[in-house]
Amino acid sequence: MKVAVTGATSDFGAAILPVLLDDPDIDTVIGLGRRELPIEHPKLEFVRMDIRDPGIEEVFRGCEAVVHLAFVVEEIRDKAATHDINLRGSRNVIDSAYRAGVLRVVIASSINAYGPELRPKPVNEDVYPAGDPDRYYFHDKAEVEHYAEWWLRRHPGEMAISMLRPTYIIGPDFSNDGIEQLTGPVGAFPRADDAAYQFLHQRDMADAFHRAVKQDLVGPFNLGPRDWVGVRELAAMQGQRMFDVPERPAVVAANVAFRLGLTAFSGQWVTAGETVVDSTRLTEATGWAPTLTARESAAVMILLQGKPLLRREDALERRIACEAALEPASEFVGVDGRGLEHVQIPAATGAVHAEVHAARRGGGTTVVLPAPPGLHARYLTPLAVELAENGVNVVVADLPGHGPSTGKRGLATAAGVHDALAVALGYARIRFGGTPHVVRVGDTTAPVSRPGRRRSWVARSRTRVVVNPADGLLPRRLRYEGGLEHLPHAYSARGVTSVIHTDRVDS
Fold first, then answer.
1. 146 CA to centre of own chain
2. Which domain holds residue 489?
3. Is the pLDDT at 455 greater than 60, yes or no?
4. What does the pLDDT average to over 57-75?
5. What value does the mean pLDDT take over residues 286-293?
6. I need a labelling partner for 402 at 20 to 30 A (CA). Which of 285, 291, 309, 327 fits?
7. At what angle do helices 11-21 and 202-213 cross, to 10 degrees?
8. Banded model confidence at residue 452, pLDDT cuts 50, 70, 90
9. What predicted TM-score, i.e. pTM, was given to this entire model?
10. How far from 3 is each of 29, 99, 293, CA to CA, in Å?
C-alpha cells in the first residue's frame, strides 16, 4: 500500500507519519511539504511541493490513499494568500487525487468548521458546518468541507473522501500559541463559565487517521473524547488566574496587538471556547475510541508545558496517562513503558507519583529510590528494571513538584521531601512487606534555590544523568530545601545492591 501525506512537516504530520510507517501493510509513504522532513525512514519519500502545484497529480499516481493535512493554521497578515493556500490548494488535492486514481482521501478538518458558537450539548455530524466568515480558520475549514461534499455528490462511489474533525490536540509534537495561552499564568475568556475544550492526545488522533487511511469512509466524522473540561476547571488544575472578559473589546485589543506585532494571533482567534462534539459515528464506523479522557489529556498538556498540577484529584492515575506525560523522557532513555506500574500515593503535599517494579525473581528485598531533585523517576527506570531483574522490589518516588507528582514545579521543601519519603516507604511496606531500604542515587545533594534550566546533566545532585532538553516535566526552576542528605547513596544497580547488603549486615 502506498500513501501520500500533504503537510507532512506539520505537527499533525509529526504525529501521523510514525503510525503509518509502523504499519506493515504500508510499503511507501510520500511526505509532501515546503520544507525538509525532520525524520528519515526507509519507507519514507519526501517531495518538496506546494499543494497548489498541478504536478501533485503525478506524485499521487499509484497511491491508494492521500492524507491531506496541509493548511495555514498559524496566522499570517495576508488573508488572500491564506485563503488561496487553504481553499485552492485543498481543491487541487482532491481533484488531482481523483485524476491520479487514488481510492480514498482523508482530510484533516476541524470542529471549528461548526463555527464559534457554544452549544448546550454535544453536537453530531447532522449539524451544518457553517464556519465563520470573520475567522479565516473557521471559514476555510468549513469551505473545504463544502467542496468535498459537492465533489462527492458529483462523483458518487468514485472516490471516498472522509473529513475528520479533531477537537483540541495536545501532545509532545504540539506546541502553539493556543496551548501557551491555555497554560499561561493568566487566562481570559468571553463567557468563561461556559467555555470548554475536549482535549485529545495526538496518539488518539493519529490512530483515527490511520484507521481512515485503510477503509472507505465517506463524509464528516467528529474526532474527540467523550468528556470535556471547562476553562475555569482547567485554570484550577494549574493555579491559573482566570478572568471573564467581554468578547468585543477582547477582539479589538487582540487585533491591535497583532497589527503592532505584540501577539501572534488577532481577534479572529478570540472565542468563548469550542463546540463540544459527539464522536459516536466514527466509533461505530471504525471501532476507534480515545485512550485518554479530555481531563487526562488536559493534565498531560499542563505537565508537558512545565506547569504544575496542584490538586491531588488532578494527579494522573492510569498507567497510560502517566506514560503519555512521560513520553519525551521515555523515548530519550529508551524505555518501553507499556508494562510498567504507576501509583499516586496520597500525601500531605497532594499526591506523590511512584513507579513500581516488582522483582522478576526472589523478591525478598525492597528498596525505595527517591528521584534526585531536578529529575523525575523515568530517568531512573533503567536502573530500577535492572534491580528488579536481579530480585529486588523497587519503588522509584518523585519528589513533590517533580514528574507526575502534584505541587508547584521544582519546589521541594524539607517537609515535603520528608512526607514524600514517608508515604513511599509506607506504600512499599504494605505492597511488598518487610522493612524497605532507602537509597539515594547520586552523591551529596545540597539545598538549591536558583534557576535550573534543563541541562545535559544535573550537576546539582551530581547524578550525571543525561536528560532530554525537550522534556517538559523537568523543572525550569529548582528550589530544593534538603531532606535527602542523610540517605546512603549509590551510582548504579550494583551500588544499590551493595548498600542493601551493608544495611543488612549493620542491622
1. 30
2. 317-506
3. no
4. 95
5. 98
6. 291
7. 60
8. very low
9. 0.92
10. 5, 16, 30
